[in-house]
Amino acid sequence: MIGFKQVIDILDASVGGPSAPVGAHGAFWRGLTRDQFVQKRVFGRALVALGDSAASNLAKALKGEAPFGSDIGALGATFPRMPAGRPPVGATEIAEIEGWIDAGCPEEAGGTPTAILRRVYSIHPGIGIARIGSSPTEWFVGPEAPGVAPLPTGPFRDAHGLIKRQAARFRLYEYCYGEDGKLVSVREITADHAKITWTVRMANRKAAGEIFPPGSGKLRNQSVTDRASLVIDSGSQSIEGRDQAVRMEGSFRGRQVPLGEIRTDPAGRLIVLGGFGASEYLGDGPRHIDHFANNDGWYDDVSDGPVAAMVEVLDREPVAADSAWVIVTPPKYAPEINSMMTLYDQALNAASVLDPAIVPSSVSFTADVYPILQRVCDLQWVNATARGAHGHGAAQHFVDAAERLTILADPGPQAAAERRSIFDKIVPPRTPAGQAGRRMPVLNDGLDPEDPSRSIEASLTALQYERMRKWALGSFAADWPGSVPEAIPFELVPIEQQPAALDQAALDFCIGGPFFPGIEAGYLLARADTYRAPFRIQETFEPGALTANMALPWQADFLACNDEWWPAQRPNQVVHNGASVEWVPPSFQYLDMVDRWDQLGFVVRDGDGFVEKERLEGTPVG
Fold first, then answer.
1. Which of 85, 201, 250, 437 has a CA that sits 20 to 30 A from residue 100's CA?
2. String of b and e for 370-385 (b: at least 16 CB within 10 Å)?
3. What's the pTM?
4. How far apart, in whole angstroms, are the C-alpha atoms of residue 103 and residue 266?
5. Residue 38, class by beta-carbon neighbours within 10 Å (0-12 exposed, 13-18 middle, 19+ buried)?
6. 111 or 162, which is more confident?
7. DSSP assignment, residue 224?
8. C-alpha atoms less than 13 angstroms from C-alpha of 132 in its C-beta half-sphere
């Protein structure tokens, strides 16, 4: 069996050599790595379907099969056979390339192709995050690669000053397994390879849910006997093909409520868009809000629910993909800043309970320790307390100088005292409320996910804490490259790593505590029994269950939680025109936040720091 180099040799030979000029399709194969080659798109179409030569456009193009072969009269063809204007590639060489594709496109030649015994399809990310916005027409896709922040192209607002929504994009992957049960190849499945029918159901159960905090047995809107009328449910809606759109809406006590829409992109991937931030009161008397979380008569348009897909590849029987979940949440107003613990950290901690093998036993300074130290220091731009303790020049600004990072990244004894000093400041997991003092993170307490009847200090997850403990002891990999590694864009992530990258990126910019109740979702996402598999929500959960106990309306909590709660999502103090100001004007009351949430600014990178921008003109500052 040939390898990647031999494939390139065949393609070069077909056009007259490795330096020969090429018309029409161009010499698209030159200068690429194997991973770049298998992810390459030509004429907007995926070049290779890993493990499936019959579905690969490269093989079709070489043989002159539709949509290729227009120059030789192939029925339904729109592109010429490859190589255009030259003699066709020999049948032997084409068969070798087909065998290479069927074997998973190996880098090296040799060996016997592995027969594909089983194909499994899975949706990624396992949990997708969409965010509401007030713009009815403009939106952007949320993060798809770890470390690549959720930023739109251009400003966060449209031409009318309305906030763009953040979409959750879901992709479908095929895992091919050989006779020995081992994974042979991974590829993304798009509309180029298969008919994909996506089905999504979104719901908001807040008004019918239990009051927060849970445990009292009391319900919101207790006097309403028709409990179903309080649930805003889109029902299951399906979509297939390219560039399609379907509205998602339900009703609240007879009033229609848009929850967003589902779309497909030009490759047939699913895009989920949430609501528009519309929170309204249908109760008795004038509208009013009296509590940060429980307000009868109100509804908002956040939601959550399952994402399913049926896959029909060529003439095979349709197969159900492993399903995912989508959560529609409020905006993230500091998109590049994270808390010490994220929802990914919580989900990974839960995954380590379900499958301990999913987490390496070794600790990496660059991947595991540095991000925690960086997040602590980045909070200085959204919280005055953090600025005093971890701001530039402060004793606990851990990442201020390259020299200090070099010391902290060294497992030797010379830095042991400083490592231990930092670790001793970290709150142990599940510390009872009121017993942490001023240790990291300096955030308010929340519910204990394992026992929601008790309150605990905000803390790292058990997995994060254990990694920091090993770091303090000097038991970690000294892998610091000397400067902050650049985040890898999704298109450069190797295909076999893309599913995990999507799972992480979706949750990496979400709050992982304290849960009182939270921002994107509450304490349920920190519990192992919420998941049927790593990053996969139990199918027994009803649509809307993950957001049911969140604040109603969400703007109430956004106003009330104005100190050390979730500054990476909802800033406390920000730098505005060179001065430190309250992000929410002190004059704002609950109803002001309901009406004017989309007038507040976004905290964005500015040189070596972060400043607030895009606050609508006329919106007061604190």
1. 85
2. bbbbbbbbbbbbbbbb
3. 0.86
4. 28
5. buried
6. 162
7. -
8. 22
CA separation for the pair 266, 247 (Å, rounded): 18
| Inter-residue contact 37 to 47 (CB < 8 Å) | yes
Distance CA 343, CA 468 (A): 18
| Cβ contacts of 301 within 8 Å, gap of 6 or more | 132, 204, 232, 257, 258, 259, 260, 274, 275, 276, 277, 278, 279, 328
Query: Tens of pLDDT along 29-73?
Result: 899 998 889 888 887 778 888 778 888 889 999 999 888 888 777
Task: Please name which of 173, 143, 126 lies closest in space to residue 351, comparing C-alpha atoms.
Answer: 126
Q: Would residue 87 be called left, alpha or beta, if left means φ above 0 and alpha means ψ between -120 and 50 degrees?
A: beta
583 within 8 A of 575, measured Cβ to Cβ: no
Q: DSSP label at 593?
A: H
Can you read off the two tokens belonging to residue 263?
Answer: 């779309």
Radius of gyration of the CA atoms of the chain, in A? 26
Q: Each residue of 403-442: pLDDT tens digit?
A: 889 999 999 999 999 999 999 999 999 999 988 776 889 8
**H or E, element range at 200:** strand 194-200
Distance between CA atoms of residues 264 and 271, nearest Å? 6
In angstroms, the Cα distances linking 594 to 156, 402, 499 are 19, 44, 37
CA-to-CA dists, residue 394 to 256, 335, 374, 399, angstroms: 53, 24, 14, 11
Q: Crossing angle of helices 462-472/416-423, nearest 10°?
A: 160
Nearby residues of 432 by Cβ (< 8 Å), 6 or more positions away: 454, 455, 456, 457
> Token pair of 22, please?
């090429």
Tokens representing residue 610 in the block: 């972060």
The amino acid sitting at 472 is A
